[in-house]
Write a structure and sequence with these properties.
The complex is a heterodimer.
Chain A: E1 3-7, E2 10-14, E3 19-26, E4 30-38, E5 43-49, E6 56-58, E7 61-66, E8 71-76, E9 85-93, E10 98-100, E11 104-109
Parallel strand pairs in A: 2-11
Antiparallel strand pairs in A: 1-3, 3-8, 4-5, 4-9, 6-7, 7-8, 9-10, 9-11
Chain B: E1 4-7, E2 10-13, E3 19-25, E4 31-37, E5 43-49, E6 56-57, E7 64-68, E8 74-78, E9 87-94, E10 103-104, E11 108-112
Parallel strand pairs in B: 2-11
Antiparallel strand pairs in B: 1-3, 3-8, 4-5, 4-9, 5-6, 7-8, 9-10, 9-11
The chains are: A mainly beta, B mainly beta.
């Protein structure tokens, strides 16, 4: 059975810290991996990763995919209170079906 | 730039009542999805529609029905609501072949008492 597992489930850090969120997957016919940020309402798209070893970067956020070890990480440097959210990852298979992880709840303390 | 529009935003139902959640997207997307989100369980797919005229069950379809009315609209119906269906429901849409990034509606918080 295909699955996506995120860790940790929750994380509390102080402003300015760097955090690394993990997403591992076991998916038949894997196509790509998506990262989303969810604050109070709908998830918003962060990154789509298709190729192994190529870092995607947006400001203080970056992400990379390892298709050999079947995982992805999302890094946030110099965290701010506005980074507090649930971070979701999802795998996409060859039929374009999404399988979601349970999310990592990140809390940034001032 | 409406994107994905869901209605209503909040709803309280009594056990056994029925209701329909509405979803419309204006991005000409082929695929549309209904998810429920419960604490600690991430997003679980209820039903999806890969293209106009087709619908398929997802991970947790029991107690729900859907209609892909046209390319823009995808509705979710609860025929006889149960307390276990208390959840936050999200509609989403995406291009199927060009870009798998899914865009989400703002969610419907449903409470069944």
């Amino acid at each position: 059975e295909d699955k996506v597992v995120q860790s940790p489930l929750s994380l509390v850090v102080h402003e300015g810290d760097t955090v690394t969120l993990n997403c591992s997957y076991e998916v038949t016919n894997f196509r790509s991996l998506l990262w989303y940020k969810q604050e109070k309402k709908a998830p918003t798209f962060l990154f789509m990763l298709t190729s192994s070893g190529i870092e995607k970067k947006s400001g203080r956020l970056s992400s990379i995919l390892d298709k050999k070890e079947l995982f992805s990480i999302l890094n946030i440097t110099a965290t701010q209170t506005g980074d507090s959210a649930i971070y979701l990852c999802a795998s996409v298979d060859s039929n374009y079906q999404l399988i979601w992880g349970a999310g990592t709840k990140l809390i940034i303390k001032p | 730039n409406a994107g994905v529009t869901q209605t209503p935003k909040f709803q309280v139902l009594k056990t056994g009542q029925s209701m329909t959640l509405q979803c419309a997207q204006d991005m000409n997307h082929n695929s549309m999805y209904w998810y429920r989100q419960d604490p600690g369980m991430g997003l679980r797919l209820i039903y999806y529609s890969a293209s106009e005229g087709t619908t398929d069950k997802g991970e947790v379809p029991n107690g729900y029905n859907v209609s892909r009315l046209n390319k823009r609209e995808f509705s979710l119906r609860l025929e006889s609501a149960a307390p276990s269906q208390t959840s936050v429901y999200f509609c989403a849409s995406s291009y199927r072949d060009l870009n798998t990034e899914a865009f989400f509606g703002q969610g419907t918080r449903l409470t069944v008492v």
